[in-house]
Design a protein that fits this description.
Helix content: 55-70%
Largest sheet: none
Structural class: mainly alpha
Oligomer: single chain
Order of helices and strands: HHHHH
Strand content: under 5%
Number of domains: 1
CATH architecture: Up-down Bundle
Shape: globular
CATH topology: Four Helix Bundle (Hemerythrin (Met), subunit A)
CATH superfamily: dinb family like domain
CATH class: Mainly Alpha
Number of strands: 0
Distance between the termini: 61 Å
Length: about 180
Amino acid sequence: MRHTFPILMLVPFALAGMVVAPAAQSSVSIQAEMLKDWTGLKDTMDKIANEMPEDKFTFKSTPAQRDYGEQITHIAQANLGILRAVGGNTPAPTIDTKVTGKAATIKAMDASFDYGTALLKEQTDQTILQPVQNPPRFLGPSTRARIFTFLIGHTWDIYGQMAVYLRLNGLVPPASQRP
């Protein structure tokens, strides 16, 4: 019993330490995490977009699919179209939706990600959780965070398709390359 008593005296302190841990986690910023994911995704997409040689930018996995360059343009169009719902002071860039060629296509995609980055930098943890005025009809009521989350998921979907296009051409997606 003498040995048990000192150990029991430590239990409240151990429990107090567990209560402090969640408070430390509350210093995480939703806006900062979203910005990190968004800018990281731009980097990932630049790498995969640049991996396909210029002469294969019109490659399609099947006749019914978009070609490689059109996949990249689709990301740019989706980003710009849906990000407009977020609102903000940053004007949306103008891109040519009929853009062709590797450099011009990647430039359009980068402009759409830069627009998203600028909009995210305008946000706070409070404003990013507020509903947008005119969300895309297919999404229904949405917060700014949901708009970005949707676009991140959409872009990863396209990334997966682009990885297949590379593999069908004997190339390895950057994320799968080994030194």
